[in-house]
Amino acid sequence: MTAQTPPAPSFRDPQLPFVKRIDDLVARLTLDERIAILHQFVPAVERLGIAAFRTGQEALHGVAWMGPATVFPQAVGLGATWNDNLVRRVGEAVSKEVRAMRARDERVGLNVWAPTVNLLRHPLWGRNEEGYSEDPQLTSAIATAYTRGLRGDHPTYWRTAPVLKHWLAHNNETNRDTTSSSVRPRVLHEYDLRAFREAVQAGSVAGVMPAYNLVNGRPNHVSPYLREHLRRWTDQELLVCSDAGAPSNLVDSEHYFDTHEEATAAAVRAGVDSFTDHGTDSSTIVARIKDALVKGLLTEEDIDQAVRRQLSVRFRLGEFDPRLDPHAATRDFDTPAHRALAQETAEQAVVLLKNDGLLPLADDVRVAAVGLLADECKLDWYSGTLIHRSTPLEGLYERFGADRVEFAEGVDRVRLKTSTGAYLRVPVADADDEVRGAEGALDPALLQGRTDLPPLTADEHGSELALIDWGEGLLTFRAPDGRYLSVADDGYVRASADQPGGWVVQETFRLEPHGSGHLLKHVGTGGYVSVAADGVKVAEDQREVFELEVVESGEDAVTRAAAGADVVLVFAGNDPHLNGRETEDRTTLRLPDHQERLLRAARAANPRTALVLVSAYPYAVDPTELPAVLWTAHGGQAAGTALARVLSGDVSPAGRLPQTWYADDADLPDLLDYDVIGSRQTYLYFEGTPLFPFGHGLSYASFAYGDLAARVGDGRVAVSFTVTNTSTRAADEVAQVYTRAVDPSVPRPRRELVAHRRVHLAPGASAELAFEVPLSALEFWDVAHGRWRLEPGPYEILVGASSEDIRLRTTIEPPGEPAGPRPVRERGLEAADFDEQRDTLIVDRTKVSGDSVAPAEDRTGELLFRRCDFGDGVTGVTAQLAGEGTLEVLLDGGDPPAVLTLAAPTGPYDYTTVDAAFTASGVHDVRLRLRGPLRLAHVGFSG
C-alpha cells in the first residue's frame, strides 16, 4: 500500500476564511515563535514552511531606501494637487513598483509605512514635507486616495499594506521624544483624530504607527486612543507598528516606566503589535517580552492578539496563497506610464501665487535662470534614488533652447587660504570605471562616501570652491567638478558627495570668526578642519585658521545674468536635508539672507523678475514688487520639466495651497501649542491677514461660478453649482466648498472645507458639480455632554476658488439639537472638558487612561466651564487632586471662591478627594483656578 499524503494544514486552505486560518496557524506556533513575531524582523518558521517577514517599507512618494525607483513629488506637493484621483493613481504606481522590486530583492517589504497624515498645523515643523495639509478634510481625502492606490482593488488580496504615520498630534521635531502635546477634547476629535479616522473608515488602511511624542502627558506608544478610537472605527484587524527606537524611549528618554519589561508590556497591552527597536537584532525585545511574561506583566493571550493582527496583514498580502495572489506577477517598474504620471503630478502640484501678467512666458523670451535651486533636483530623506532627473534649468533649456537661457547659480566662488599661505586643493579623483557614468564623466552619485578617494590637500594654487549658504550660517562647499566636500568615518575631508544627505549630514560646515580669520567647523562631527601632511581632516585638537577669499560673489553673477534678460526667474527654497527636516524644526519663515540678497540683486537689475520657490514648506516673502510668484514642493524626477511647462503656458497652473502662508513669524503660535482653537491656528481659526490663504492658487484661465443650490435631506446637504471656463485657454479649476456656523454658541471655524473637486474645462465649457455633504460635517464635539452635536441655527454654504475667494454663498438651517446646560449636579466636571483655559496643560490621570489638568510651570492656571446647571442648589464641592497646591472654585460675579487645599503632597497619580463648602443654584459659569504643582481630575458637587 502507498502511504497517503497528509492533508495540508488548515492555514494553507484558501477556501477557509482568514480568521479560521489564522487561528489554526497560531495554534501551531510555539510560544517562542509567537514572541519572535512581535519584532519588526520576523524570522522564518522553517518547520511550517513560513518565510521571514518584516514590517516597514518606506513609500511616502515613491519606494524609498531600496535604490532606484520612480520619484514623485513630496507629500506636501501631492496635497497641493487637490486631486484625489491623481493621488490614487500615484499610490497604484508606487505599490506596483514595490511588488516589482520585491520580485528582485526580498528585502523590499510589502507592509508600507505611508502615508504621513499628521496635520501641517505649524509651518515651522521640520517634517512639513511629509504631510498633505493643515486641514483634516483635505488630508484625509488625499490619504484615503493614496492608501486605496497602495492597497489595490482586489476584494481579498492587497497589493501592499499601508500604515498611517504618526499617531497622534505630532508636529514638532524639537525634543520630539519627550515633549507632550496638550490636546483638549474638541481639538482631539474635530482636528487630530479626524485626519486618521476617515482614512481608516475607508477600508484601505492596514494599520498605524504611533509617534515619538506624548499626548496629554502619556507616550503615544501606550495611548488608550488606540483602543478607544482607532480600533473602533473598523471591524478590520489593524496592525500597530512602533516607530524606530520608541519602545526603548519609554524608559531611556521619557522615563515613563522604571523598567523595559514594564514598558514593553504596557505597549503590548495598549495595542502595539510590532516593535521597531534595535535594528535587525530582535534579541533585546524578545528578552523583554519573555521577562514580562514571567513577571505576570503580560499573558499569552496578549501575545496572541498581537500575533493575529500581524498575521492578518500577511494573509491579506497573499503570502499564504501565492498561486491566488493577483499581484504576485506585478513587474511594472519605471514604465513610460509611471514616468508620465510623475510629470503630470509635478505639473499639477505647481501653485501660482501671484501674477501681474508676466506669465506665461512668450516663446521668444530670453530668460535668466538664477538662484540656488535653478539647477537642482533635490531629494529628501524619504525619496528613492533617481532614475531620471530634471532640473528647472534643464527644463528651460528643453523648452526654450539653451541659447535663450542664461544661468547664474548665485553662489559665492571662494578659496580657503591657510595660515601658511597655502590654499585648500581638491585633488583629481581616480578615474576608474567604477566612478564614471554612462558617457565616461565622473558621476558624483557613485563617489558618495568613498574612503579610497584622496582627501583634500593644500598647495600654493588651491581650488576654487562654490560656497553655498543655506541660512543661519549653515554652509556646503562644492568642488569644481560638482562634488560636495564631505567627511567620512576616517575623518578626512574629500570631495565625494553627490548631494548633502544622510541621517547625520556630513557635508555641512560653519565658519566661525577667529582672530583675523575663521575656523571651519564640521557640523556632522562637531570637530574642526585642520591641515596635516597626509591631507585635510577634521580633528578635535587641531584647528586651522582660514582666510576666506571671495573670487566672485553670487550677487555679482546674478546681476550680470539678469541685466541682459527679458525675464528673470529666481529659483529659491531649501535643501530638504538642511535647516528643517526630520529631527530639526525651522526657526523662521523667512528666506535665508543670502537668497534674499540674490532676489534683491535680480530685482534691481531687472524689474521683470519672478520668484519661483521650490521648497518643502511655506516662506514669508514680500511679493509687493514682484510681478509673479510661484511655489512648488520638490517635485521628484520630473520637477524641472513640469516647471518649464507651467512657466511657458503649455500647462495652466491649478495647484492650490494645502496650508496657510503667513506673512510674518509673529503670526505663528508657539511650536508646542497644539490648541488650534484657543490660539486661533490654521485657516480654520486664524483671524489675521495671511500672506496667501489656504486653498489659494491662480490660473492663466478665468472661471465663473453660478447656479448654487443647497438642499437638506436624508442626513446630508446636497450642494450643486456650475463652473464655467470664461477664457480662451483650456485649464483646470479647483472648486472648494466650505461651511460656517453663522451664530455658534462656542468658537467654531471661520470656515471649514467640506468638499473639493479638480475639474478640467475647455474654453467656454461648463461643468455642473454636485456634492453630498453629510450633516455630521457640521457637528462639533460638545464637551459639556461628551459627544458630537449638530447645533441648530443657520449655516452658510460657501463656494469658491480658495478659503478667501468665495464666489457663491447660501444659507441652510438643518435640524439640530439645542444646547442644554452642563448637568454638573449629576455628573460634576471632568477637568479636561473645559470650554476655555489659560496657562494650563492636560496631563495623564493614570499611566493607562484618563486626563487631568495641571497649571503650566510656575503659573496660575484657570479653567472656564460655561452654563453649569446646579438645579435647586448645592452646598458642597469635592475635587480629586494629586500633587500639591490649591484649587479655587468660583462662580462668575459670585461670592469669594471655595478653596480646596491638599493637606500633604502626594504622587502625581495618587489622587485624594478634598471637599469644601460651596453654595450655588441655577445655571452659572464656573471658574477653577489651580495654583502650585497640582493635578485636577474631577470636580463634583453635593447637597
By CATH reckoning, the class of the largest domain would read Alpha Beta
Separate helix tally: 19
Structural class: alpha+beta
Q: Please state how the strands of the largest beta sheet are arranged side by side.
A: 11-28-27-26-12-13
Largest sheet: 6 strands, mixed
Whole-number radius of gyration? 30 Å
**Low-confidence runs:** 431-447
Protein model, in words:
- The protein is of the alpha+beta class.
- The chain folds into five domains: 10-316, TIM Barrel (Alpha-Beta Barrel), CATH 3.20.20; 350-410 and 555-649, Rossmann fold, CATH 3.40.50; 419-543, Trefoil (Acidic Fibroblast Growth Factor, subunit A); 682-812, Immunoglobulin-like (Sandwich); 824-942, Galactose-binding domain-like (Jelly Rolls), CATH 2.60.120.260.
- Helices cover 21% and strands 28% of the residues.
- The chain contains 19 helices and 48 strands.
- Helix 16 (593-605) links the parallel strand 26 and strand 27.
- It starts with 17 loop residues before the first helix and ends with a strand.
- 51% of the residues are buried.
